[in-house]
Amino acid sequence: MVVKKNLESDGYNVDMIVTDGEHEIICYQYFSDPIKEKIEGKKVCEVTSLLAKNIMLSENDKYLISKGNSYYEYHLQGEVIETDKPIIGIGKIIIKLDQPLPKDIMKGQYIEFEVSRLDCIIE
User: Fold this and answer.
1) Structure-derived torsion over alpha carbons of residues 74, 78, 83, 84, reported in degrees to the nearest 10
2) 3-class secondary structure, 118
3) How far apart are alpha carbons 16 and 19 in whole angstroms?
4) What is the pLDDT of residues 101-120, one digit of tens each?
């Protein structure tokens, strides 16, 4: 996962497009010190969800990234990589969920859910 493009920044708050080469998402990151360097091409260490909701099994085993009504909002569908500390994969984009998975969902299954925002940490 790398930063494809810096969309908007005030020096501390940065919106960026994160990609695995096939899939793309808009992520947010806050920097405690103003960022002065170019971030395009930087490796993304972690992507986390904010306010994940409506988590359920998917009817099909495919990846889906669909923009919601607000700027950061998404409807996502991906494969469960870990259940204890919920992690899903959409292609090579790995997202840590901020909410637990329903108890009947197992590793390898596909789920769908909504998020209010995706946050990331870059190297």
Assistant:
1) -40
2) strand
3) 10
4) 999 999 999 999 999 999 99
Q: Under a CB-based contact definition with an 8 Å cutoff, are residues 19 and 122 in contact? A: no
> Which amino acid appears at position 39 of this protein?
I
Whole-number Å distance between alpha carbons of 99 and 102: 9
List all residues 6 or more positions away from 67 whose beta carbon is below 8 Å from its beta carbon: 73, 74
**Is residue 7 within 8 Å of residue 26, measured between CB atoms?**
yes
Structure confidence by residue, pLDDT tens digits, 83-104: 999 999 999 999 999 999 999 9
Half-sphere exposure of 36 (CA within 13 A, CB side): 2
Per the listing, tokens 């329903």 go with 102
SS (HEC) of 26-87: EEEEECCCCCCCCCCCCEEEEEEEECCEEEEECCCCCCEEEECCCCCCEEEEEEEEECCCCE
Supply the pTM of this predicted model: 0.92
Structure tokens at 49: 């969800």
